[in-house]
Amino acid sequence: MALNWMNERVLHAGFAGHAPTIDESQVVDVLLAIWLAAIYGGGAPAS
């Protein structure tokens, strides 16, 4: 539930122009890293 709320707040802040926000070019990478760390206990798997 908390991860969904975090995604919602990040996207809402970015769309509404609230500061500070995550740089648009890094939003997906940042959210992915947080989700992977929360679910799997680490970052993206090594290729």
Automatic annotation (TrEMBL):
Query: Could you tell me which residue ranges the HTH-type transcriptional regulator EthR C-terminal domain spans?
Result: 2-41
Q: Which domain of life is it from?
A: Bacteria
InterPro entries from the entry? EthR_C, Tet_transcr_reg_TetR-rel_C_sf
Q: SUPFAM superfamilies under this entry?
A: Tetracyclin repressor-like, C-terminal domain
State the name under which the record lists this protein. HTH-type transcriptional regulator EthR C-terminal domain-containing protein
Q: Which organism is it from?
A: Nannocystis pusilla
